Amino acid sequence: MSGSESSSEPVIETDQLRRVFKTRKGSVEAVAGVDLRVVAGEIFGFLGPNGAGKTTTLRMLATLLPPTSGRARVVGHDLLREPHQVRMRIGYVGQRGGADPEVTGRVELIFEGRLYGMSRDEAERRAADLLSTMELESCADRRISTYSGGQRRRLDIGVGLVHRPQLLFLDEPTTGLDPQSRARMWEEVRKLREIGTTVFLTTHYLEEADALCGRVAIIDQGKIVAEGSPDDLKRAVAGDVVSVGVTGDPQTALQLMLSQPFVREGSLESGLIRLYVDRGETATPAILRLLDAAELGLTTMVLSRPSLDDVFLRQTGRSLRESDPG
Amino acid sequence: MKLARDTWLVFQRYFGIFIHNPAWVAVGVIQPALYLLLFAPLLKSIASVPGFPAGGAYNVFVPGLLIQLGLFGASGVGFSLISELRLGVVERLRVTPVSRLSLLLGRALRDVLTLLVQSLILVLLAFPFGLSFRPWGLLIALGLVALIGLLVASVSYALALALKDENSFAPIIFTAALPLLLLSGVLLPMSLAPSWLRTISTLNPLSHAVEANRAVFLGHLNNPNVLQGILIMAVLAAIAVWFGARSFSRAIS
């Protein structure tokens, strides 16, 4: 990613992308006018709770679902007028993968290559390459139904990469994986950036967006509520976070804290007082003194840097973790 | 060119999956054989009833049985598509530049090939019982089976894509297939039916296919029923293929 032209070239550009679903009870606006700009070579994270509109947006950008209104250019082509051009240059790995459990990993990779116009020889060579880079050689000729969760997911990504796409969509790439496989998956995604593939991924894991993505957009109820690098977003929340547990009435304690000049903002979250302060190291002793004077006992006190969850909480008034059923 | 190549790729894939599942291959062969062995002998005794068409029990029954094979053999093909929808296979294929018509045709042609093999087995099994036919007659009969297979398989796939759920797909398919079968004159010729039943039966496209096929097996190629039956099936198959391909390009989730 040396030249400035390549890093500023938009791979995805949307203008008020909108999707309405008709149901028996009326219409639901799943995506309510989304403007996105993703540039070549970045790993872009689309973050939000289940049902926020992440997958619907992704499916529109991958030519699977026509938008109700709005426009988008993907890999330099108009999504609605040139879907074929878009399809030739993107890869898509859905939440459910899409490999048939009845066939072997090798068969699946070769078939995929053939669908993109490769000759039989070419497709076989490409399948062998991918089986080796994804470390799937040991199970290459076994039926996919016998694969472990991690192997299955690596194969899905391999299938999405067969035609060397410029842009790869990953819908919840690590949902349902154990921590070890998840770490393994993150490595694979980072490798993609090294070979120049732009990655657009959705996740509801904050750690994942934080660990992988250069930029994230937070979507809630079909609208983008924040966008930027994880660090920028966290800085916007400002300062440090102090979580305090008290023995008495937390509401009284919260009101007391909010009246202090060094507390910028605060809220109650499942019985814990969450305070945003300018400087944690001076705020903590002050908080202790205040509690002492008010004769409130302290149960816990944790000082932390703001996380993307704090960003989400600040933008939407809800915690991402609370809305995560998993 | 691309259409032919894509269709061939999709056909090969689904043929490969089918051939690796010997249970389905066996079921496909055993079912028509059972009809032949356990039901056709009943017809022998009623072949002399007034109104029963000429040609003997097997020449009346086997042509109809071939049509039934086409109807029942292809009506359930949507089941496998529903499980593929659930696994995300259909979505994955739709992201590739593969032709949407090929996604339908490749599968449906696999189903047609299966039907043709079953039909040949059925005809060969019936031969020693006294079925008679000319080589070109057999070719026309197989062509008719192929058209019905294409028609029914396309409808079945389109329905599967629309319903996306086995529990609503199964009752609709079976409820539709049974009256189509009963009103086609496959089991007993409609010449035995009361006039009101015969009138309803003429509205059933399959009854024309059955009539055509019986004429073919009697060697009456000039019978207008033959051309009529083939044309009706060809037009309906073309509409069904168009509709099925449209469902593939719109399929959601």
Task: Explain this structure.
Chain A is of the alpha/beta class. In chain A, 38% of the residues lie in helices and 29% in strands. A six-stranded mixed sheet of chain A has the order 7-8-9-4-10-11, sandwiched between helices. In chain A, strands 1, 2, 3, 5 and 6 form a five-stranded antiparallel sheet that branches. In chain A, helix 4 packs parallel to helix 6 (149-161), helix 6 (149-161) runs parallel beside helix 7 (179-194) and helix 9 crosses helix 12. Chain A is elongated and about 80 Å long. The two termini of chain A are 37 Å apart. By secondary structure, chain B is an all-alpha fold. Chain B has one domain. Chain B is built from twelve helices and no strands. The mean pLDDT of chain B is 89. The interface between A and B is medium-sized, with 28 and 21 residues.
Strand content of chain A: 25-35%
Number of domains of chain A: 2
* Rounded mean pLDDT score of chain A: 88
Query: What is the N-to-C order of secondary-structure elements of chain A (H for helix, E for strand)?
Result: HEEEEHEEHEHHHEHEHEEHEHEEHEHH
- Radius of gyration computed on alpha carbons of chain A: 23 Å
What is the distance, rounded to the nearest whole angstrom, between the alpha carbons of the first and last residues of chain A?
37 Å
| Main structural class of chain B | mainly alpha
| Rg of Cα set of chain B | 19 Å
Name the quaternary structure.
Answer: heterodimer
Number of strands of chain B: 0
Count every helix of chain B, treating DSSP H or I runs of 4 or more residues as helices.
Answer: 12
Report the total helices of chain A.
Answer: 13
Number of strands of chain A: 15
CATH-defined architecture of the largest domain in chain A: 3-Layer(aba) Sandwich
Structural class of chain A: alpha/beta
What's the end-to-end separation of chain B, in Å? Answer: 29 Å
Strands in their spatial order, largest beta sheet of chain A: 7-8-9-4-10-11
CATH-defined fold name of the largest domain in chain A: Rossmann fold
Main beta-sheet strand count, sense and barrel state of chain A: 6 strands, mixed
Largest sheet of chain B: none
Kindly report the name of the CATH homologous superfamily of the largest domain in chain A: P-loop containing nucleotide triphosphate hydrolases
